[in-house]
Specification:
There is one protein chain. By secondary structure, the chain is mainly beta. The chain folds into two domains: about 10-45 and about 125-315, Thrombin, subunit H (Beta Barrel), CATH 2.40.10.120; about 60-125, Pdz3 Domain (Roll). Helices cover about 10% and strands about 45% of the residues. The protein has helices spanning about 80-90, 110-115, 270-275, 315, and strands spanning about 10, 30-35, 40-50, 55, 60, 65-70, 75, 95-100, 105-110, 120-135, 140-145, 160-175, 180-190, 195, 200, 205-210, 225, 235-240, 250-260, 260-265, 280, 285-290, 290-300, 305-310. A hairpin with a 7-residue loop joins strand 12 (about 160-175) and strand 13 (about 180-190).
Length: about 325
């Protein structure tokens, strides 16, 4: 599933989710391991969500963002609960749907036919891809994406209970062209072997505990984090994955530094030839300048996919503005 913000810039990760309070890292790390691997992201939502407006027989509506609480007296917490109701409900039986809509509970009459018809518009889980940014070997924690995940249908960060990230392999690339961002087509390698859990979906990325003991980073040793005032216009390198599971390095030029963000342009001819520019799914790719961990790719410019925006690593570690 892909989501695109059709304005000057576009977020580069693919998926749906909600802000969950998470205790901040105890102290800012001085060194981190840059990664660059493509990851699959799975999040279990806090309930069964309606993702599109759906008309019922009596001309009443389920609204995008509604959360199922009960069908008659049966609590609905997962899609399994929802499936059980449909399976066991007689054809001519009417039921009362209780949904949470904002701060209110709304009751709507429905039928088995209704439930079957709007089945494609409800879900209890979301999936997507992005790029793993770093591992903090001292704390056993990771960070990814460099920006918050927003649900395309709900236009907000929906609530989630648990989540995990997985190593993904890139199977195909849809190239970027001006006005139409490209994207990665990927699949998870081992769904029973998560790289880490997801504890928080913050303004500056997703964060959690690192669980893998086998995946290695782009560098044999952790790199020093570059201070914001050290990031300068000039040559730099990004680490990302565009084929299989191999992390590769590509050249960029940092073009401007403005406060807590900076802009860059792709200069690597091989990368441009293969991708047409920055792709959805590249958000989270680490940026290295002068041997230090400078920042992370967060956005691209829709009308010029060779250009993008980035967040300094010191800013990403704060998680919030």
């Amino acid at each position: 599933m892909r989501w695109i913000k059709r304005s000057i810039v576009v977020y580069l990760a693919v998926l749906f989710v909600l802000l969950l309070p998470f205790q901040a890292f105890a102290a800012k790390a001085e060194k981190l391991i840059p990664m660059g691997h493509s990851i699959g992201i799975h999040m279990n939502l806090k309930g069964v969500f309606v993702i599109n407006d759906v008309l019922l027989d009596d001309e009443k509506w389920l609204k995008a963002g509604d959360v199922f609480k009960q069908i008659d007296s049966k609590p609905i917490k997962t899609m399994t609960d929802f499936d059980d109701v449909i399976t066991n409900l007689p054809e001519d039986r009417k039921v009362i749907l209780s949904v949470k809509r904002g701060n209110q509970t709304v009751d709507l009459e429905s039928s088995k036919k209704d439930l079957q018809n709007f089945y494609p518009f409800v879900r209890d889980r979301t999936e997507g891809i992005g790029t793993l940014t770093y591992i903090d070997p001292e704390k056993g924690e990771y960070g990814a994406l460099g920006h918050q995940i927003i649900d395309a249908a709900l236009k907000s960060p929906p609530s989630f209970s648990t989540g995990s990230i997985y190593l993904a392999t890139i199977e195909q690339i849809k190239k970027s062209v001006p006005g139409n961002p490209g994207y990665k087509i990927s699949s998870i390698l081992k769904e029973d072997h998560p790289l880490g859990d997801i504890q928080s979906n913050e303004i500056y990325g997703i964060f959690g505990d690192w669980q893998s003991s086998t995946l290695t980073g782009a560098f044999p040793e952790p790199l020093e984090i570059m201070r914001e005032d050290e990031v300068k216009p000039g040559k730099a390198t990004i680490y990302t994955t565009i084929e299989g599971e191999t992390v590769e390095q590509f050249s960029i030029a940092i073009t401007s530094v403005k406060g807590s963000s900076f802009q860059f342009e792709l200069t690597d001819k091989e990368l441009i030839s293969k991708t047409g520019g920055i792709l959805q799914g590249m958000s989270g790719s680490p940026i290295i300048q002068n041997g230090k961990f400078a920042g992370v790719i967060t956005h691209m410019f829709v009308e010029d996919p060779l250009k993008g925006a980035a967040l300094p690593m010191t800013k990403m570690l704060k998680k919030q503005p």
